[in-house]
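Here is a tokenized protein:
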Amino acid sequence: MSKSKKSRHETAVQGTNDSSIVSKLSMVARGYFSDPYLGEVVRQPCRRAPLINRGYYIRSAIIDRIYKTFLRSYTSQHCQIVCLGAGYDTAFYRLFAEGLLTDCSYFEVDFDRVLAHKQALIDASPLLSSSVSEAAKTDTCVYKLIPCDLKCPEKLTGLLEKAGIDWSAPTLLVSECVLTYLTPTHSANVIAWAGAHLENAVLAIYEQTHPKDPFGQVMLQHFRKLGSPIEVACSTQELHIQRLLYNNWSQSCCHTALACYHSLIDDTERARLFSLEPFDEFEEWHLKAQHYVLSCATKGVCNDLECIVGACSRHHTQPQPAQDSPIATVPCCPVQLMETSPGTTACAGLQRFAHSSALFDDKLVLFNGFGVAVNQTHQRLSGADVLHMNTRDHSVSLAPCSPVHCDGALPECNMFTGAVPFDSSSLFLFAGRSSPMKCSTEVCRVTFSCPSPTTEPESTGDSRHG
């Protein structure tokens, strides 16, 4: 990579810090999370969409729980926190104000340019600078900014030693969407470096995952357009675990942000979240939360801190019904998966969500939604498809379905539209939205022409599944 290209790439990666901190402030401004210090480091606040606010909320809730669980486990001895790629993060100020850093050395690592700007923001803010001054008055709370490129871990070793790090003290390392912007080699080197130098430590990594599925491809394209492409993202949770174990760590686990959400957030807190702003993008939320993971690794005395890993990443399980509950005695029926008929293009038409559907005998009409178009791009879909279901051999065939008559305005590219069958060939479409903030109040009756499937499945004469 040429020097100028490398500089542009690093500038773009540093720019993700600006975008991230603005999104965090948007989430805080809407009441999702409390952080009175974020406003001191953001020059131009911007309101983000509810889906983005919710994503940054669970990210902040997970990392906050990691910080506090670790610190409360070492109230009687000196401990350390190393924030890798800290950017304009304000966790130090929140934790210091809550009295959790009374005996802790706190190191923030990032590019020289980023930390120079952060220092200027601290100096210009009475709120931030007063916290730093109060910490400096104590002998046990240390706060240091360490300007260093993470691609140079050996240089980081010297800088941290100069700043006073104790390689044997219990240490928490935190990385929020940082290592994915390094090459696979550089990313592995950082993990291995930390595991080799620290004797007793916890490593918590929050980052993207599953880059190869359709949503993952859109995610990669998004960051590529921003000029900060994701260089490494493990395809499975098992790979996240193995990456840590192969690089000098003793124990490891990995869970999706969605699993952490179900584990951490109780019903009362969820009700509070829903009261903050309108939200109905559940499919998108589930997809997004399944494409971010928390990977944790431990070594030394920190191997005993199961609460750090368990509190934030244990599996979410449904409660078991009581023995005398009628639910426990309801018999379960096996589900038959229906296969697409040979030669059809059902896969493309079926890869959608937030659509409406209506069942007419053996035909299921799918209308609008978001998914894979004929040209294999991911976009809002318009129009309808009809799914012909053969109950004899459990196959399906997909064909276009054109509306031949419409009483009212036909909703184009709407998501979450309601659909109610009226007779054997028509239905009512109502409500839905064309954007999170633009809901529809239209109701229309649509009559469809549903052609026969282009490929008729051959009859086998076998009635075992009839």
